[in-house]
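Feature request, filed as a ticket because there's no other form

It would be nice if the structure record came with a short human-readable summary line next to the tokens. Right now we just get the raw output. Example of a typical job, pasted below so the devs can see what we mean:
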Amino acid sequence: MAGLPYIVGNWKMNGTRAMLAEARAIDRAASRFPGVQVALAPPFTLVNAMREAAADIGVGGQDCHVQASGAFTGDVSAALLADAGADFVIVGHSERRALHGESNELVRAKAEAAQAAGLGVILCVGETEAERDSGNAETVVTDQLAGSLPQGEEAAAKLSVAYEPVWAIGTGRVPSVADVGAMHRAIRAKLVATYGEAGAAVRILYGGSVNAGNASELLAADEVGGALVGGASLTAEAFTAIIGAAAALAEQA
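Raw output as currently delivered:
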């Protein structure tokens, strides 16, 4: 595993100021597990408030525009996220790719814009159920990754990759541990081919119906350096169990 395990909660379009109590509870819980890096990506409207409410965990955005500023009504730039207190941003999430038609080229531009603004990047890749069933999942994912990876001398240093099988997100379905390990090894090979030695240090997260019941098994899979968690990150109780599972595995390593 490259570095500390990285457990990131993606709140998606959920969370009002009332939910900052959960963020504070997660922040307190995370302080008990110094061997795990913990972060939350709330809606844009909560980034600043969460940064003020949570002292120890990372806080990030769920997307960003490629431009730093301009006439882009409704969009949020990486510079604005950084100003609000974010330290990272998620780009290329399957919901952005599918529902907003985001291409690999656009995802790469967003990743590069985020890094230029000083933000870390969590770059998401993953296959659909049809692509998995066709037997082409690894090719689909590594091609998607190759087209989306940011370029630049320090690109790998501020990058994490999240593998999220689209068919497993929010469905309760999870690929086998062997399949997760195989995909993460393929992603690692592509990262090393792209970045050289620096690619070996990029953490690869698993995302797709991660919960307290399956976290230990999934986090123990080959080349899994953490998790991108959806619904189970919305409550401190469920998310803390996942953080604890990561901490236990890290202690055994």
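Something like this underneath would help us a lot:
The mean pLDDT is 96.
The CA atoms of residues 93 and 153 lie 24 Å apart.
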